[in-house]
Write a structure and sequence with these properties.
The chain is of the alpha+beta class and 270 residues long. It has two domains: 2-160, Formiminotransferase-cyclodeaminase, Chain B, domain 1 (2-Layer Sandwich); 165-269, Alpha-Beta Plaits. It is built from nine helices and eleven strands. The protein has a seven-stranded mixed β-sheet with strand order 2-3-1-4-7-5-6. The chain has a four-stranded antiparallel β-sheet with strand order 9-10-8-11. The longest helix has 19 residues, at 94-112. It starts with a strand and ends with a helix.
Amino acid sequence: MFECVLNLSEGRRLDVLDELSNAAGESLRDRHADAFHHRSVFTLINDADQLVADVRHLIDDALTHLDLAGHEGVHPRFGVVDVVPFVALDARESPRACALRDDTANWLATTHGVPVFLYGPLSGGERTLPEVRRRAFRDLSPDVGPAEAHPRFGASALGCRPILVAWNLWLEGVDLDTARRIARELRRPGLRTMAFAVGGAVQVSCNVIDVSVVSLSSVYDEVAARVPRGGRLARAELVGLAPKSLLDAEEPSRWDQLDLSAQRTIEARI
């Protein structure tokens, strides 16, 4: 079984999101939409052939309904189909996940004229998604497709990677500079962080890229300890699904606080 977690640049129009969900077919296991980020995360899981078919249907539909021109949101993005990572749920199948990435990248560039940057294992070594965002169209050319961004669709980053958990902490009574400082202090191997202003609050956005070494409860407690007097850590928010191993590593009494549940695990949705 393989997972594909498509990050699409639309988080506000429910009718469009419902249409995109229908296009994702039987592989769709979860959808998370955020109006502030103006972004949605579609989690698809299936065997390789059906997964690829549903991924392509979803991308086709996204490029029919969405346009990057005029798009605004707090999350960085450079494309309608912004980020598309493939994940082998059995780590022994990781090379196959990278092959699915490469096949999808060539299809997207050929069929829709979208320039594609690859991340994850490459012939010249490893490339990370933050590196793609930092270097794209500057000193890094697309791996496949046109040299310039598409006028409507922008560009896409396609990757293959291990299981990742996206998780947000919402802070109230805290300014953005303080949230950015907290985010910087949290960064470590296995954990990437950013800070955003979201409505009347701020958010520390966490990507747990190694679930074996990062404890959500520890991150939560570290943030809570850094919130200055007059502010508070209001809530946690899981984006998409998490592996059961992440829940097993936490005391069940803290699951609600961390926004975890057995029903929102990868294993529960297969």
